[in-house]
Amino acid sequence: MNRLPPLIAAAILATGLDPLPAEAAGFTTAAEVKPILTATRANWVAVREYEGQDLLYFTQIESWRCGLSEVRYGLNGSPADQVRIMEPCYEDEAAPNAIKAEGHLPFITLPLGSIESVTIELIYDDATSDSATFAREAVQIP
């Protein structure tokens, strides 16, 4: 039987959502990744100032991208209409959500101080969606 890591399982149960079905194995469908992304919503994105630029990280979303059909984002009050190109899902491998970063980085680079807020919209492979808006201060990392 496949099991979730204890911290992820606790986070899912704390949200009141149903745990993943027993047959969930690869975290490659909306049913499998939606509870995790819902429980970890506060960590979908991060902003970091680095070498005179703002880096907008999508690492949390990239880590659970299988089961998503599209990720959109918008900056500073703009609608989430920019499509984030995600690394492919490696469904034929043991870790389909692995981030290989071969020609693809889990962040975008913007001018320093240009990010005030970020709106994210996740479109799942079951045609449902979820969204959230984050103030820079709430997601900025040192």
Description:
- This protein has a single domain, classed as Immunoglobulin-like, CATH 2.60.40.
- It contains four helices and eight strands, in the order ααββαβββββαβ.
- The chain has helices at 6-15, 30-39, 59-63, 136-139, and strands spanning 46-50, 53-57, 68-75, 82-84, 107-111, 117-124, 129-135, 140-141.
- The protein has a four-stranded mixed β-sheet with strand order 5-2-1-8.
- A hairpin with a 2-residue loop joins strand 1 (46-50) and strand 2 (53-57).
- Helix 1 (6-15) packs across helix 2 (30-39).
- The radius of gyration is 15 Å and the shape is globular.
- It starts with 5 loop residues before the first helix and ends with a strand.
Task: Compile the SSE list and pairings.
Blueprint: H1 6-15, H2 30-39, E1 46-50, E2 53-57, H3 59-63, E3 68-75, E4 82-84, E5 107-111, E6 117-124, E7 129-135, H4 136-139, E8 140-141
Parallel strand pairs: 1-8
Antiparallel strand pairs: 1-2, 2-5, 3-4, 3-6, 6-7
Short summary:
With 142 residues, this protein is of the alpha+beta class. Helices cover 20% and strands 30% of the residues.
Task: Name a few traits of the molecule.
single chain, 142 residues, alpha+beta, Immunoglobulin-like, 4-stranded mixed β-sheet, 4-stranded antiparallel β-sheet, 4 helices, 8 strands, 20% helix
